[in-house]
Design brief:
By secondary structure, this protein is of the alpha+beta class. It is built from eleven helices and 20 strands.
């Protein structure tokens, strides 16, 4: 899997540290995210448009084919990727930067013509087996090992990439052959560092920048189809950073005093998160997929399904339900698809039982002596929502929320004023309508929504019985107008 004979420095550290090994497992999932999706067949529409993350094409092609404003998500084609992160380090610290990506490899089936020659075909059958022409990918990685003191003197540039090549595999029975071809990929990674401040304990805070660029040309120019440009691209590009004498700082939850420096970090088409155990800054994974700090692959997962956002149990069960013909096509599409089928079909029942669900975040709730006093109605419990007791004191049917300074609860009459931005398109058709509040819900992110039924909806009573409501935020509602004294024409008492 590794390009070259030596394990990288990060991998060597990982072999001694279980936490870093888990981070590399996450990096492997990033490498093959979306590589080939269920139902793992070439004919599936979702597998006809591939390579959606961390794609670094030749610059002239990227700039001529819809450049987009840079952001932290790498789900667009670009010609570069930039990571900036913070670290505390001693003066003799060393950094190990590992750039990882996939190189496209064309698997072309060629049928024997009987005269010693071959012609390209889309499919080739050899007895009970079928082989399909398909684009595979080869994992590559390159390591940069450099002292931090060297980076303070100026940028450190390293050429990386992968050569082109071809390999031929003859199929049994003389029916034909498989020819795999790769075009060369050229890139350069530039690493630099800047001192921010001395910490007074022999260490200093630094900003580290790692920028990887596709430095190759686009054969055929900027007008070639995307499929052609991908032959000279780095795909699923991401970066692992670790070192000796270093401690990396979270950009998601920076320590007090580091917030401004964290906000100043400019990450383009990728985003760095801390790896290793909670509370530590041993390493960084900068990926084109937004992840939390300290990401982990679920220990119950039996193996990569090329879709880390999917639920393993559902995806495995659906894979078992493929027809024999669909499984035959999947096996013919790609060896990784065949490996997934073999693994799923051989999984014992107890493995499926483990996949059914796991709770990891519950912790014992410690209380003082005596009964706990409930919080005031409508206020959030100080415990996180996922912990036992986290929703105590909340009552959707009795809680109230202030709307323009007026308490509104279940049974209150309101007028709907959907927000101009961020509202559901259907909600805009309800602007100005009157409704009645059915419940007040406190969301897990700390926001509040009110469930309402429309006054002029003939099915309002039935919808309420089913629990079907429209949901609005407090600022999208108007409270009922105050009652006026009918004896005073101007509404004053």
């Amino acid at each position: 899997m590794v390009d070259g004979t030596a394990r990288s420095g990060c991998a060597a550290l990982a072999s001694r540290d279980e936490a870093l090994q888990r981070l590399r497992t996450v990096a492997d999932a990033v490498l093959y995210e979306g590589y080939l999706l269920y139902p793992y067949r070439r004919s599936s529409p979702k597998n006809r448009v591939r390579w959606q993350f961390g794609v670094l094409t030749p610059r002239e092609w990227a700039e001529a084919n819809g450049p987009v404003p840079p952001g932290v998500s790498g789900s667009v084609d670009s010609w570069y990727q930039q990571t900036e992160c913070l670290l505390r380090a001693s003066g003799d610290a060393r950094l190990r930067v590992t750039v990882r990506y996939l190189q496209l490899q064309r698997k072309q089936m060629e049928q024997s013509t009987g005269d010693g020659l071959h012609r390209p075909v889309e499919a080739l059958e050899t007895g009970a087996d079928v082989h399909l022409t398909f684009d595979e990918a080869v994992p590559r990685e390159a390591e940069i090992d450099v002292p931090l003191a060297r980076l303070l003197q100026g940028p450190h540039r390293t050429a990386l990439g992968s050569p082109g090549g071809s390999a031929t595999e003859h199929l049994g029975g003389g029916a034909g052959r498989v020819v795999r071809r790769r075009d060369p990929v050229h890139a350069v990674t530039t690493v630099r560092a800047a001192r921010i401040r001395d910490e007074g304990d022999g260490t200093a805070l630094y900003r580290l920048r790692v920028r990887t660029e596709n430095s190759g040309a686009s054969p055929g120019g900027a007008g070639v189809p995307r499929a052609e440009a991908l032959r000279h691209a780095l795909m699923a590009t991401h970066t692992l950073i670790c070192g000796a004498g270093t401690e990396f700082v979270s950009l998601i939850e920076p320590p007090e005093g580091d917030e401004e420096h964290a906000r100043a970090c400019r990450n383009l088409f990728t985003f760095p998160v801390l790896g290793g155990d909670e509370g530590r800054g041993d390493a960084v994974l900068s990926a084109p997929i937004i992840l939390p700090d300290h990401p982990r692959v679920a220990p119950e997962s039996p193996g990569d399904l090329h879709d880390a956002a999917e639920i393993d149990e559902i995806l495995s069960l659906r894979t078992l339900l493929l027809t024999d013909e669909e499984k035959r096509e999947a096996r013919a599409t790609d060896q990784r698809a065949a490996d997934i089928l073999d693994r799923v079909e051989s999984m014992p029942p107890e493995m499926f039982a483990r996949l059914h669900g796991a709770i990891r975040s519950l912790e014992p709730v410690t209380r003082g002596p005596g009964p706990a006093a409930p919080p005031p109605a409508g206020t959030r419990h100080p415990l996180p929502w996922w912990q036992e007791g986290g929703d105590e004191g909340l009552s959707p049917t009795t809680d109230s929320v202030l709307v323009d300074g007026v308490p509104v609860a279940a049974g209150s009459a309101v007028r709907l004023r959907p927000a101009g931005r961020g509202a559901d398109a259907q909600d805009m058709f309800l602007a100005g309508r009157t409704a009645r509040v059915a419940a007040v819900f406190h969301d897990v992110d700390g926001s509040t929504h009110l469930a309402v039924t429309l006054d002029d909806d003939p099915a309002a009573e039935l919808n309420a019985w089913y629990g079907r409501y429209f949901y609005f935020r407090p600022h999208e509602l108007e409270p009922p107008a105050p009652a006026r004294d009918e004896g005073a024409p101007d509404g004053r008492p």
